[in-house]
Each structure stands twice: as C-alpha cells, then as structure tokens.
Amino acid sequence: MRDGVVAAVAAVSFLALPAQAREIHELWNFGDPAASERTFRDELKHAQGDVRLELLTQVARTYSLRGRFDDAHRLLDEIEPQLKDAGRAPRVRLLLERGRTFRSSGAPDRARPLFIEAWQLARSSGLDGLAVDAAHMVALVETKTADQLEWNRRALALAEQSTQPYAQGWKASLYNNIGWSLHEAGRYDEALAQFEAALRERQRRRQVTEIRFARWAVARCLRSLQRYDEALAIQRALEAEFAASNETDGYVFEELAELLDATGKPGEAKAYFARAAAELGKDDWFVKNERARLQRLRAKAGER
User: Fold this and answer.
1) Tally of CB atoms within 10 A around 15
2) Domain for residue 292, yes or no?
C-alpha cells in the first residue's frame, strides 16, 4: 500500500522451525507468483513430510495472488486431510493461506477467524515469524483504525522481542503498516515517526528497493504535514535515482505533481499529473482499486 510479503518433520524441535520458515520465505518472488510456483514445485521434488506440506500451501498462495481462488481452495482442500499427522507449522500455514484466499476473493469476514486461529496456534508453538504474519493479516482485515493498530502493535512487539530472524524481519513492514493506519487517521506526526523507523530498518538491512519505498512514504507523510520543501527534495531524488536506472515510478510522479500543485506551480504539476496517469494507468491493481484517484490524475492532466 503506497497511499493508502519450519519444520522438516513433526518430531523436530521448535528451535529448528524458524530456519525452515525463513527458507520458504526466501523462495518467494512476490512480483512474479508464476515464477514462485515453479520454484516451489522444484523444491517439492525432493521435499518430504512437513516441508512438503508447507511448500504446497505456498503453491496455493501463488494461485491466490493470481486470482485463481478456486484452484487455491482446491489445493488447500487436498492438503487439509494430511495435517492429522503433521506438525504445527503446516497447520498454521494452511490457516494463513486459506484466510488470504478468502480475503483476496472479497470475503474478509471469513478470513478473520482463520488468521486469529493461526496467530494463537503459532504463538503457542513458538513459531514467532508465522505468528507475526498472522497478526499482521488480522490487522489487514480489521476495518477500524484502533483495531488495526492493536494487531499491528501486537505483531511488532513479538517481532521486536523475538530472537528468531524470520520474526525480526517483519519489523520494517510493521512500522510501515502502523504508519499508514496513523496517517489515514490524520495522526501525521505519529505516522512520520513510524515511517522513519521503517526507513532506518530498511537501511540497516541494506534493502535497496525497499529503502526507496520507505523514503517515498516519509515524503508522502511530509506532504500531509505541509512540509513541502522537504517532501519535494526526497521525491526529486527518487525521480533521479529511478531515471539513472532507466526506470520510472508513477507514484513518484504523482507526488511530484501534488507537491508542485500545492506550492503554486500548476504548469509543472500538470506535466507530472500526465506522467503519473500514464504510468499508473498501466497498473492493473491501481486501475481496479484506485479509480477515483486515476480519474483525478487524468483530470488534473487536462485529459478527458
């Protein structure tokens, strides 16, 4: 959201579980679910026991991410009877992926109890990373800001106190999510502190792509605080970085347009509104979920 991602066998100790969780997490390319499916299927060729079941839940997730909800549920249905002899991690993952499939297909009310059950089972099993994942998913289906904040802060507290790297790796995302909840509630100063925390965590981990997104969020919040010069400096720097890599980013163009418009430069703003509309108009998710926003960009660009 710009403005608005364990066990080898049941007998293995919980100390070994997070390593498997990290390995599965690291197999993902969320920008290309089809490629991720191929990766998981390659791993399945030599996987057994709980690892095999966990990998299958991730294949189901690739279906859900591509809108193949029936295929996702069908595969999860096939996995579920096999859980009677499995450890806790495959059970948690099945709950998570069933819930994610319901949420993505427009049934958040059916997803919520599954995420809560996943949270409870993961917590009682010492699976910190999966527990954090579950709590952050509860936050995503909550409709009230207070409830979103409660669940994200619960997840963050666990991520910060856990010694498990997979759980610790969630911190930047949680700072970001808390920041957006606060931003949407108009609590901009508090939101900025969270976005800045997310940026520091991304920088500490040297995550180049994620650092750019985190800087963008900081600048977006600075615009809400009417600290236009600071916001503009960050967005200009991001534009230059993308250009140096022969890339473009419609969200950066949108922010530059809004900032220029807010500071009395309508001519420059209009050109950026047009560039933002052109880039974001290529994004299927944006077109589907941000129709009013896209229409505004086009109108401000002088398009009909």
Assistant:
1) 10
2) yes
280 is in which domain, residue-wise? 226-304
Q: Is 78 a member of any domain?
A: yes
User: DSSP letter string over 214-266?
Assistant: HHHHHHHHHHHTT-HHHHHHHHHHHHHHHHHTT---HHHHHHHHHHHHHTT-H
Q: How many whole angstroms separate alpha carbon 65 and alpha carbon 130?
A: 19
- First CA to last CA across the chain, in angstroms? 27
CB atoms within 10 A of CB 118: 27
Residues 6+ apart with CB under 8 A from 45: none
How do residues 198-254 score in pLDDT, each as one tens digit? 999 999 999 999 999 999 999 999 999 999 999 999 999 999 999 999 999 999 999
Count of domains for the chain: 2
Pick the last residue of a domain from 96, 122, 151: 151
CB distance 300 to 257 below 8 Å: yes
Q: Residue 193, Cα to own-chain centre: how many angstroms?
A: 19
